[in-house]
Specification:
Elements (H helix, E strand, L loop, with lengths): L1 E3 L2 E3 L4 H19 L6 H20 L3 H8 L7 H8 E2 L16 E8 L2 E8 L5 H6 L7 H17 L3 E7 L6 H5 L2 H14 L4 E10 H5 L6 E5 L3 E3 L3 H8 L6 H8 L3 H7 L4 E3 L10 H17 L6 H13 L8
Parallel strand pairs: 5-6, 6-7, 7-8, 7-9, 8-10
Antiparallel strand pairs: 1-2, 3-4, 4-5
């Protein structure tokens, strides 16, 4: 990655980084010497940088979208909670083994509407990333999610899940405690819920670690998010026995929001600010909140049996129309 002024740039953004660095240099020069007139030069460079940014993001490859989805400054679950959810009460523990900080969940209000929010948190700085295990949940995280879904159904709360994980944690301890069984039970609980379940993939949605919380009545993706049964690196390691063909794997996997929408795997896409969600986190969070509110209204008045059957039919229908 290339570092620019107060911003982290991805490899393919180097020309944009160079232009924005020049703009910043001119501004600093003018700040030191007010007699220097730079407004015209800055305006030209800004126009050029904006055009280059639009051009770059209009033709992102699947691998470049993967990089954007993983951008370290992309807003995470806790950022959405802080801006959108009132009276959020985080609940901890699976009542079996331990608390898993990779999954955040609890009741709260979205513009006054009571909901149960469950999300995957990667962490921001190094310390929080370690604490949240980079968003990779262990079995106790998925069992906590099931506990919260049970609670939501008991009290008639719609469930909202925010997906952002490179996958479930593959450690020995997680396998010893039943990782596959926990993921399967969480997926099954999503499908059996008798309250609305809305899923939004805000970054990475990789492997069973994502689908365990994503079998919703509506599955929505941010424009530059990715969603697949395995990461490009993992796919490359299996098919070519080396991880350096991740670009080729990403292109073949149909993991972008646009491809998945065409295939009918997801229901809709939320546009991101120019240059990705990390360039204007506030805007994408507000937009996501509006989409959530409108989507939840679609299910007002539907009973539990209707919701469960509609969800079941939604997933059974995938692949029947010859798109796969």
């Amino acid at each position: 990655m290339v570092l620019g002024p107060m911003r982290t740039y991805l490899d393919f953004e180097k020309p944009i980084a160079d232009l924005e660095a020049k703009i910043e240099e001119l501004r600093q020069l003018a700040a030191r010497d007010v007699s220097i007139a730079i407004s015209e030069d800055v305006a030209k460079l800004e126009t050029k940088a904006d055009a280059l940014l639009r051009q770059s993001y209009a033709r992102l490859t699947p691998w470049q979208k993967t990089q954007v989805a993983r951008h370290p400054n992309r807003p995470h679950c806790l950022d959405y909670i802080a801006q959108l959810i009132e009276e959020f009460s985080p609940l901890a523990g699976d009542r079996n083994f331990a608390e898993d900080a990779a999954i955040i969940g609890g009741p709260g209000r979205l513009n006054g509407r009571p909901i149960m929010l469950i999300g995957q948190e990667k962490g921001a700085a190094t310390e929080s990333r370690v604490r949240h295990n980079f968003g990779m949940a262990r079995p106790e995280g998925y069992r906590k999610a099931v506990r919260l879904m049970d609670m939501a159904e008991k009290f008639g709360l719609p469930v909202v899940t925010l997906i952002d994980t490179p996958g479930a944690y593959p450690g020995v301890g997680a396998e010893e405690r039943g990782q596959a069984e926990a993921i399967a039970r969480s997926t099954a609980r999503c499908l059996s819920l008798q309250v609305p379940l809305i899923t939004i993939i805000i970054g990475e949605g990789m492997s069973g670690g994502a689908i365990a919380l994503a079998a919703g009545n509506r599955v929505i993706m941010l424009e530059h998010a990715i969603y697949s049964v395995i990461s490009p690196e993992g796919c490359s390691s299996i098919l070519w026995r080396e991880a350096d063909k991740a670009k080729e794997a990403a292109a073949a996997m149909k993991l972008t929001a646009q491809e998945l929408h065409m295939l009918g795997v997801i229901d809709s896409i939320i546009p991101e600010p120019l240059g990705g969600a990390h360039r204007d986190p506030g805007q994408i969070i507000r937009q996501t909140g509006l989409v959530l509110e409108n989507t939840l209204k679609e299910f007002d008045g539907q009973d539990g049996a209707q919701l469960r059957e509609a969800r079941r039919q939604k997933f059974l229908a995938m692949g029947r129309d010859g798109k796969f």
